[in-house]
Structures are given as structure tokens and as C-alpha cells.
Amino acid sequence: MSGFARRFARNRPAVAGLIVLAAIVAIALAAPALYPQSPFALVGKPFQPPFAEFLFGTDQLGRDVTAEVVHGARTTLLIGLLATAVAVVFGMIVGGIAGYFGGRVDALLMRFTEIFQTIPFFLFAILLVAVLTPSVRNVTLAIALVSWPAMARLARGEFLATRNREFILACESMGMTHARIIVAHIVPNTLSAIIVTASLMVASAILIESGLSFLGLSDPNVISWGYIIGEGRTALRTAWWVCTIPGIAILLTVMAINLVGEGLNDALNPRLRSV
Amino acid sequence: MSAAGSEPVLVIDRLCVDLPPWAERPRAVDDVSLELRQDEILCVVGESGSGKSVMARAILGLFPSRHVKPSGGRVLYRGEDLLTAPPARLRELRGSRIAMIFQEPMTALNPVLTLGRQIEEAIEIHRATPRAQRRRRVLDMLAAVHLPDPARIFDAYPHQVSGGQRQRAMIAMALTLEPDVLIADEPTTALDVTTQAQILALIREIQAARRMAVLFITHDFGVVAEIADRITVMQRGRLVEQGDRAIVLQSPSNSYTETLLAAVPDLVPRRPRENLSGDIAMRVRGLHKTFRGGGILSAGNARLVHAVNDVTFDIGRGETLGIVGESGSGKSTLARCIARLVQPDAGEIRIGELDFGRLAHGALRRARKRVQMVFQDPYGSLDPRRTVGSLIAEGPIVHGVAASAAWERALQLLELVGLDSRAGERYPHEFSGGQRQRIGLARALALEPQVLIADEPVSALDVSVQAQVLRLLADIRERLHLTVLFITHDLRVAAQVCDSTAVMRHGEIVEYGPTAQLFTAPRHAYTRELLAAVPGRAWSEQRASARSTA
User: Going by CATH, does the domain composed of B280-376+383-533 fall within 2.120.10.30?
Assistant: First the structure.
């Protein structure tokens, strides 16, 4: 594992991304301590510019934008992680079974996956949230439901490639059960590709969540970055900071996650790097 | 030109090629000097990693990556130093004066262009020749390399012709501008033995007709004995011996050359073993396996491939049965059918009294330990994420042995196959190819199989490592009284390892009998053809008779 850490550390942008990401996570975790008051609380005059009474000013209702962004980070990151986790587990099960058993099972499961892929994913997410009433749980579910096909396709490819390696034949000829072969031998060999893709999926989940919140399709009782932008967009010309600050937060987070993902890719698959 | 063989066309003078700092040795090629004369074939022999390919490619300034670069010496083509020549001059020489052919013609040819077009292109780059004349020239060349129906080959794409034909087309391409130096980098390694014999004869013929200088890179001493005028032996980037063919092959002065030569298995079968009991360990009757080509849409006219067609044989307890055949003969499918990794369509597989071919599900899983396999690819047959010890112990654990007992047994097996028991804690990537094959063998033995199937267990290994692994296998076979089904394409290996041999072609066994009999008095025409095609046959026979008189 030290070799992995060394290869990751050699990648400067990835380390920078990791630092930014760690800072964002730390702020999110510390939100209740930093701003014990509810982020929805009205604390001052509306539309105060940044760097005056409040660090990032106030919005149209007089809420502290800083408190909103700090608390919003919790929701946004939580939804990103949970949605990805659900998508990874479901995608690996479907794709893994398809890739391992092949044949008719594969054809059936992949056609099923394609049904999901034929629907434009963002419209699908909007539809789901609109039908299911916007709540944190439903938004997470909707994002997972539009994200898993990509993971299923990847898992299928990885399982298929690993399945045909000779060491899997050796396992089979030793009399191992399918479950043991999959869990003990195939999954560990596909994990690096899946970790890399999952890390990038977190970034796209955050973007989908922001998009949904921007359209007003988020839990109205829970603050998130997309929600702040959605609320502030009507006042964009007079109070730019209300949209801009959470926008920058999204930009930084997604970029940091992407850099970390790239770094993981290089560190986990050293053979792919050009000499 | 002066008299034959006297004038050096290409001189490599104290050439050094540096490797990047993280490589395991500082130089790929270390202070190598050689001369290639007109009208001769100089063979450069070495095992993998000897630097022979890097040296050959350095001549034309083709380096595998930008971190590998020449650091000293000269490469003189008719007095002109190619290492310092500008890129434009090198491009001018490549293909027209110094041509190169590669190991794998499938990847060296562009799959979306016809063969004729690609050869034409070689002319186009270097000469302004009218189109009709170009075409005629290409057709002439295709005929010169004995391709049947040159007009058809001209319009064929690489995948539409056989491997041997592709290599012929590559040679035609290399020769169309009449170069005076041909560099051949393992040109027959990817080919079957009968095709290899034809390509070697072709290279010999064309070289003699055009009085070309040929630098022939190979790892195979059989090929060397077949084709070389002079021989250069390389080891770890250094040149260790150089001389005329007869001298190097018969009385090498360097100990490494001697080891390499001694490691080449003899084609004369060793004396039959006498300690075989005679009872049958495995009985195979009428085994069939057919693969269906094409998808579900072409069900009506799907292409059928009879990979295994009515195969019948017995293996006695303690006996080693060899299955030899060229690629596509169905020998690997046969092995996998017998190990029940591929479901046979029909036929019977019995291990002792057990009807192994009819078992299913749980009963099959429990019986699988009776048949174990050793695979060809030392890099693909071990799970890279598990320690060696746990890989070996896993089989017995699956079959109900306690973890501690299985682990202890794994360590004993590691010692049995000649590895340190501390190897158990390490991961497969820390071992060399030969060591990995030993680990694969230990894994197979851990389940105490009644039949061991070895599917080309040494064909991915260097000749000296191959000899070690074969010795180990022979030793363990005696000690454990193992029954072995040995799959190989290499008749030399079969001659040394197998008690009986079956020759397969197109899924069928064409000849089957005691190895000594099959090698000395083959009855089937195909067996005779295979035996005749083994490179260096004459040299081997000479060597064997010299040994028996000594």
C-alpha cells in the first residue's frame, strides 16, 4: 500500500485536489459548530454585499450566505456520496452478474440497463423527483437511479475481462463456488477501476443534485448549494454573490474530486501510465 | 561489390543503449560490436531481456520509448553513422536500404488497407514510380515470396489471409525496394512449426538469390541451426560469443552459450520408463466439442468448428501422455473439456471408476480436485491480489481442510517445487516467469490430483528456465507417481517428457502411440510433416549421435 501512497503523492494536482476536498469535508463536518444557528435564520438586512457585516453577504431574505454554504455542503456531499454508493452497489450486482455468467443472462440484464440509458438522464431525474415529492431520500434515489447504468457497464466489462483470465479458470478447476470466485478473486481485481469511476460519479452526482435544486426540485426544508443558487438566481444582476459563492463551492468540490479520481486512476493502475 | 562475404555492409561499433534509471539494469545494450557482411545471415540469439531486439531496432533509430536512448558507439551503414544521421536521412534509409520484418504480422500490418496497397505505399514513399508499374512490381514481389494467386492477395485485407501468408506479404513488402540489409526480429516465433519451416526456407532462398545481408534475431537455437551462417550470442545486453555456425553450435567457448545449447531439448525420445503399472488412470471415449460461430441472427448458416472430434485415449497410472498439435488443432479445448472447464457435447471421461464427464453441480465441484491444471501463461494464471501461500492453500480449504493445515501444506509444496517457504507471504508479481510456473504447479499439487493436466506449461518460458521447469516436473512426477496429460506444440519437449504421444489436427487424433515409436517410425503423413518441420532437426540428430558414440 505504501507504493500506492507514493505514486499518488507524486501526482501534484491530485494532492492539491485531496487537500481542497479534505478542507471542504472538514468545513461540512464542522458546520454545526461554526454556525450553530439554522442556516434559514434571518440575521440581517437583505442583499448586504460580501466582506461587510457578513463574510459573503446576505441573500434576498437576509440570510447569511456563508452559513448557508457551509450547511449546504453537508447536504450536497451526503447526497453525492449516498447516491454513488447505491449506484455502485446496484451497478456492480447487475453488471457483475451479466459479465460473469454471460450468454442469455448477460443479454437480458444489458437490455434492461439500456432501457435506463435511452432516457435522457437529467430529464429522468427531474421526472422521478417530481413524481416522488422532493426530499433528501428521493433526490438521492433519483440520482442513483440515473447513475447506475454507467457503473453496470463498467462492472460488466471488468468482470468479463477478468472472468476469462487463467487464474479464474484455475479457481474453477479447484472446485470453488461461483460466489467464492466472484467475491474472493474477481471483485478485488476489478476494484481499482470501480473506485476510480465511483470517485468521478460523486462529482457528477453533486452536479445533478445542484441542477435539481436549482430547478426547485429539492427538499425545501434542507439547504443545499443548488437550492441557494436557485433562490438567488432572480437577483443575479443586483446581488451576484448569492449565486456565485455556492457556485464556486460546487466548482471547487467537483474539480477536487475529479483531480483525486485521476490521481487514484494513475496510482491504482500504474501500468497504464506512459513511460 | 567485392567477393562474397568479405565486405561489411553494416558495422555496429561498441554500441551502448541506456535504459531509464528505474529499470533493473543501466543498459539494454552494453558495448556490443558486430559486423554484418554482404551475402550472409547473422543470427543474434538470446533469451528475453538480452537486449537483442533493442540492438536490432537501434540500427534504424527505432527505440521503444524516449527514455531508452543510445549513449555511445556507432552504427555504420556503408561508412555512414546512423546514430548521428538526421531523421530525414534515417527515413530515407528505412525500408529502402535497410528493411525490417517483425514477429507479429497481424499487428505490423494495417488492418484497414489491402496488402497490395500497403506494399505499394512502401514504393510510393521512396520512389516516384507510375501506378501501373508499381502494381506490376508488387505482383512480382508477391509471386517471389511464393504467395498463391498474387492478384487475389493484392486485394486481400490482412485478416483474410493466414498467418504464414501475412508473414510472406511482410517479407514481400520489406524486399520490394531491394534493400541490402534485412533485419528480421523473431519473424517466425508467432507461426506454427510447419509454417515456420516454410518461412525460414523462403528467407534463406531470397537471401541467397539477392546476396542480401540478413540480421536475424531469435531465441530459438533450432532456428539458428537451420538458417545461420554466423552466430552472435547475447546475454543481459552484452555480447558473449560470436563465430561461425558450426563452431558455436558444436564447440562453444562461452559457458553461457553452452548452458543455452544444453537446455535445448533433444528431438530423440528418451528411453521409455519401465515402472509403469499398466492400470488405467483416465479413460476418454468419443469426446466431442463443437463451437458455433456467428451470432443468434445467423443461426441458420452458423459456422461450425469441430474443436474436439471423436477423441479417444487412455492414460495409465503414472504415465505421461502428450498431446501435440499446431495452433487451432483443438488441444487446449480438449484439455479444458477433460478438466470440465468447457462442457463437452458428447463422450465419456472416466477417472478410475468415477464417471467424471457426467457429474454436475455440487458433485462436480467436489470431484474437481481429482483433475488439476497447470496453465500456459505464468503472468495470467495467478491472482495478482493474493499472496502465493493463500493461492496454494485455498484449494484444500475449499475442500474442507483446516486453514492452518492447508497453509502448512502450502509451505511444504513451495519447498517441493524448489522455492523458499518464505515465498508464501509474497505476491505473484515478485516472481519471475519460471518461478510462477512452479507456484502454479504447487497450487495444482495441493489438491493431490489423480490427473494433472499441463497446458503448454513451458512454452512461455526462456529455454534455460524451460529446462529447469521440465526437470522439476519429471522429478515430481516420479516422486508422487503422477499421471500427467501434457499439452504442447513443441515436439522437442514432447520427446523428452511424454511416455505416449497423440498428434492432433483439426480436432482429431491422427496418430497415437508410444513416444519412441511415434518419433522414430511415424505412420501418419501429418506426423511426418510435423517432425520434418522441427527447426534444427539435422543439428539435433547430429548432436544425439555424437553423444551416443562418445
Answer: no
